[in-house]
């Protein structure tokens, strides 16, 4: 893979991975009623930052810096996801009581609180092959973040 191909791949990953993971999170939330808990939100914030860094890499030099920052933000989300997955699997306790009331449509606030489902951080609302959404975020984000860093480092070794 040439240097320009490595940079293209790094750009694609820096934009594509957070966009797809955030898209999946919002589809699961609004399409399937899997409301996020507090730690789920924590995982989203670094992906928003990664999207910003990835977009900056398209327009503002130095490109490598923005892509490296995007990779680090993606890795941060993966680390939070790994911690959250451990809480869900009962490997350790969370650092908060970590339960959010889902919903909040702007109507009667008290009614919304009493009628909304409680979203707990220590219970995975969904899994695939025994891996929760937080676990999948850990796996995908960690792999993608490391791959972006590898692609950026590749130029210096060639």
TrEMBL record:
It is a multi-pass membrane protein. Keywords: Membrane, Transmembrane, Transmembrane helix. It is found in: Membrane. Pfam families: DsbB. Its main location: membrane. SUPFAM superfamilies: DsbB-like (SSF158442). The chain crosses the membrane at residues 12-35, 41-60, 67-87, 133-153. This is Disulfide bond formation protein B. It comes from Parerythrobacter lacustris.
């Amino acid at each position: 893979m040439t240097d320009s191909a490595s940079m293209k791949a790094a750009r694609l990953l820096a934009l594509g991975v957070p966009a797809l993971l955030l898209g999946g999170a919002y589809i699961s939330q609004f399409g399937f009623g899997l409301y996020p808990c507090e730690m789920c939100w924590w995982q989203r914030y670094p992906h928003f930052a990664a999207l910003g860094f990835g977009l900056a890499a398209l327009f503002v030099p130095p490109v490598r810096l923005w892509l490296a920052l995007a990779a680090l933000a993606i890795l941060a989300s993966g680390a939070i996801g790994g911690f959250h997955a451990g809480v869900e699997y009962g490997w350790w306790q969370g650092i908060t009581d970590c339960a959010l009331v889902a919903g909040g449509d702007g109507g009667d606030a008290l009614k919304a609180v009493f009628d909304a489902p409680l979203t707990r951080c220590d219970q995975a609302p969904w899994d695939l092959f025994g891996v929760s959404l937080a676990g999948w975020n850990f796996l995908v984000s960690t792999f993608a973040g490391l791959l972006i860093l590898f692609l950026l480092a590749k130029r210096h070794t060639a």
